[in-house]
């Protein structure tokens, strides 16, 4: 019996080192797997930090975008569109040049259309707060209304509605239409015609060609309230309150002198109405 026990013990001791080595090999592999898992976890943590940083940045951008959207909504709440039409409703539209001292700087104008450059390249557009609806329009003043082709205003509160190559050089003066009319006095009006001239103040030309009201280069001084209704080469320049109704080459020299019609007639006296 004792002999059997000794044989069994010897057999166990002979096989024990082999079992211990096999067990050691398994632990090494497990340690390697654990180290690999730790490395993966470290990488995942780094990716998580990166993702969180990106998420925080995206949340910040979203907050900014939402703020911008609210600002745009507030600033466009009076604006609506239907197809290609745009509407402003329940508000006033102000166009200003941004100048604190109200001087003209070429900005603050409402330009309808292109206002194409002039063929001669002589563009002079430094005015502000004008409404422009034409081509080749020049403007240096403020608060004007300009249309047509090649017209120019160098004054404030002037008007040229249409026509071409007309010039308004004094405040509160208007040329409705025509061509090559030249208005330099304040508060003058030319309805239509060609190459008419108004100077002085409160002058009026209805229509015609090459008519002249206002100041005289001979008499000097400022003349006012003169008129030519129609005709050509007529003038009422030497005194105030004078005029020519129609005809050609007529001249009213006296204060309050009026020529009805005719050819080459003149009135020298004051307060005369020549109807011959």
Q: How would you describe what is shown here?
A:
The chain is α/β, with parallel strands linked by helices. Helices cover 27% and strands 20% of the residues. It has one helix and 22 strands. The strands form three sheets. It has an eleven-stranded parallel β-sheet, with no helix packed on it. The protein has a nine-stranded parallel β-sheet with strand order 5-7-9-11-13-15-17-19-21, with no helix packed on it. Strands 1-2 form a two-stranded antiparallel sheet. The protein is rod-shaped, with a radius of gyration of 47 Å.
Q: Which stretches of 5+ consecutive residues score pLDDT under 50?
A: 1-10, 15-22
Q: Could you tell me the radius of gyration in angstroms?
A: 47 Å
Strand proportion, as a percent range, falls in: 15-25%
Q: Figure out the total of helices.
A: 1
Overall shape:
rod-shaped
**What series of H and E elements makes up the topology?**
HEEEEEEEEEEEEEEEEEEEEEE
What is the arithmetic mean of pLDDT?
A: 86
Q: Largest sheet, if any?
A: 11 strands, parallel
The SS-based structural class is: alpha/beta
Helical fraction equals: 25-40%
Strand order of the largest sheet: 3-4-6-8-10-12-14-16-18-20-22
How many runs of DSSP E, i.e. beta strands? 22
Distance between the termini: 174 Å
